[in-house]
Amino acid sequence: VxxxxxxLIEEIEEMREKIRAMSADLQSVxxxxxxLIxxxxxxxxxxxxxxxxxxxxxxxDSGIDVDSLVxxxxxxxxxxxxxxxxxxxxxxxxxxYKSMLDKNRIKGNVRLGxxxxxxxxxxxxxxxxxxxxxxxxxWKSPYNAEATLADLRxxxxxxxxxxxxxxxxxxxxxxxxxxxxxxxxxxxxxxxEEASVFPSQVLVQGLSNVDVNKEMDKSVVExxxxxxxxxxxxxxxxPTVRTEEEACSVQKEASEEEVLPPELQELVLRAxxxxxxxxxxx
Length: 282
Hints:
By secondary structure, the protein is mainly α. It is built from ten helices and two strands, in the order H-H-E-E-H-H-H-H-H-H-H-H. Strands 1-2 form a two-stranded antiparallel ribbon. InterPro entries: CC149.
């Protein structure tokens, strides 16, 4: 009898140890869950804040996805590198053609321009003026007609290229001035409307945790509403009155949930019977 009691006590102690271990594991899992929830909320707020800042910068009314912007940035970076490589190739070809053109120019008696680092020739205003005002026999000699024509042709081409370069630079400068004027106007308007605050405050203006919860948890709230509506429909369809037998069965199930496992219950009953017998004999 004492051996059975000791075994029963040992089993009870083992069950208690298991319950303690399981409760400790459950507590650790709950703590880990809380940490993960906090980390998730932090990441959600960070994503929402970045989207809000980008939306504020771009003055867009619709929502912006950060992943799509990153992909677009990568694509534009690749295209930019490709454009730079093509520009270098075109620059090399242009330098080659300029060098060939300069070689053809030098065939005449008059040499125009000065050497540059790009490999081409640049005609200055002073050189053209000296060439036109010079009363040299080169222009009047009948034996140097081909050389004179070559010099005049090279002079005309050089002046035409210089004029085209100046015109193109002037057009680009006008466009740049228009863009800068528009930007200055918009900047002055924004500065006049807004007070002098830090840029970070301007970007985070109108941002709050309530907005994050509204935007991120909208789908969860909708799913919960659908679930509650379905459960209400099922409750309406089911009979609302329970019989006495169903109530008794519910009470039995509730009482069975509180009862110990069958093996442990038998051991406890045996121990109680033995204790009562020993008390009666004594």
